[in-house]
């Protein structure tokens, strides 16, 4: 089969690799029918995630068809159309029993495209299939389902829920890429009074307005805008959705005393924590890796028409155009790319 293989910093290749096989009785082999690229994959290619070894197949988001299951798999059947979650869960360790699947100590957590081969391939081996795959309703398309593999639960759990967004809040999201837009969409579930999107790219600010943002602004004007909207108090919740030091530090400037900063972005460099100004403000700062415990809820909302993710995917390719898709996604400031979707022509 073909797969996108990491060859070290700034090196990737679409090459022939052996087909995956069942290794453990909890495994499933899934034909990849649709797959996407994550900003985290770009961080890997920059060398920000040193645990990823050369030779690893990248990717942790996909929709596919189950081809084979191990002897211990009970709930997932051959032929099922499934969402491949970015997080795998053993279902047995302390953290999984607490619903903190991202911290799984039994061989799960974020492993696909990280510690084991991932989804940017024609087939993928998924560990702990019963806990890590979600059977899709017939009325949910492959493209829409892709948005629930990572960015929707990540933004919802690590941004909106950890930030404790509440009715009437002023929410600021720094970064209007796919994670930021997903945070906007899921924050709306809690009826905030305003959602302000901050991004340096005009194209992404336009996308944010189309997705329902109340206000958009570049980073240089964010402090003045938020102050004017809140009587000088600051945002109730500031969600960091980029993963660079300046975006995190901006969030800590925009949040009000007693407010929350929810860091969602993947950081490859240190950020300065300005305790000289924050220590007196009663600010709560949270970080985290998604657990995907809310994926069933989000999937139900999507199926019932309560969640519209149609604005998130901007570019579509065949799976054999993986290199072209990476080129476009990595130049999002020029291309306007949010999420890209790649489809397997063998999917029915």
Stretches where pLDDT is under 50 for at least 5 consecutive residues are none
Which structural class is indicated by helix and strand composition? alpha/beta
Average pLDDT, rounded to a whole number, is 96
Biggest sheet details: 7 strands, mixed
Architecture overview:
With 348 residues, this protein is an alpha/beta fold. It is 28% helix and 23% strand. It has helices at 39-46, 94-97, 129-132, 142-146, 151-161, 178-187, 202-210, 219-229, 245-254, 275-278, 295-303, 322-330, 332-335; strands spanning 2-6, 12-16, 28-36, 62-69, 81-84, 123-126, 133-135, 170-174, 194-198, 215-217, 235-240, 255-263, 284-286, 313-318, 339-343. Strands 3, 4, 5, 6, 7, 14 and 15 form a 7-stranded mixed β-sheet that branches. A 6-stranded parallel β-sheet has the order 10-9-8-11-12-13, with helices on both faces. It has a two-stranded antiparallel sheet with strand order 1-2. Helix 9 links the parallel strand 11 (235-240) and strand 12. The longest helix is centred in the middle third of the chain and has 11 residues, at 151-161. The chain is globular. The mean pLDDT is 96.
């Amino acid at each position: 089969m073909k797969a996108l293989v990491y060859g070290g910093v700034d090196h990737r290749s679409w090459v022939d690799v052996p087909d995956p096989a069942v290794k453990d009785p909890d495994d499933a082999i899934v034909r990849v029918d649709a797959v996407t690229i994550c900003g985290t994959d770009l961080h890997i290619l920059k060398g920000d995630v040193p645990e990823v070894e050369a030779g690893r197949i990248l990717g942790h988001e996909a929709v596919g068809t189950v081809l084979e299951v191990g002897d211990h798999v009970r709930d997932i059947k051959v032929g099922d159309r499934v969402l491949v979650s970015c997080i795998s869960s053993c279902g047995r360790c302390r953290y999984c029993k607490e619903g903190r699947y991202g911290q799984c100590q039994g061989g799960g957590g974020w492993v696909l495209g990280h510690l084991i081969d991932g989804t940017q391939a024609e087939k993928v081996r998924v560990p702990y299939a019963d806990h890590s795959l979600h059977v899709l309703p017939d009325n949910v398309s492959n493209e829409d389902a892709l948005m629930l593999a990572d960015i929707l639960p990540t933004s919802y759990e690590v941004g909106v829920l950890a930030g404790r967004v509440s009715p009437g809040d002023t929410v600021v999201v720094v970064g209007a890429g796919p994670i930021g837009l997903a945070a906007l969409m899921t924050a709306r579930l809690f009826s905030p009074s305003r959602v302000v999107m901050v991004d340096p790219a005009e194209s992404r600010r336009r996308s944010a307005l189309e997705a329902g943002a109340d206000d958009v602004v570049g980073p240089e004007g964010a402090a003045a805008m938020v102050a004017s909207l809140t009587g000088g108090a600051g945002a109730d919740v500031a969600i960091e959705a980029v993963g660079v030091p300046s975006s995190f530090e901006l969030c800590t400037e925009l949040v009000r005393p007693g407010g929350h900063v929810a860091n969602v972005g993947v950081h490859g460099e240190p950020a300065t924590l300005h305790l000289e100004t924050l220590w007196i403000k009663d600010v709560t700062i949270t970080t985290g890796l998604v657990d995907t415990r809310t994926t069933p809820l989000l999937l139900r909302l999507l199926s019932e028409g309560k969640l519209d993710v149609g604005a998130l995917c901007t570019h579509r390719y065949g799976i054999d155009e993986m290199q072209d898709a990476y080129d476009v996604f990595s130049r999002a400031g020029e291309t306007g790319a949010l999420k890209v979707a790649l489809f397997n022509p063998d999917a029915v």
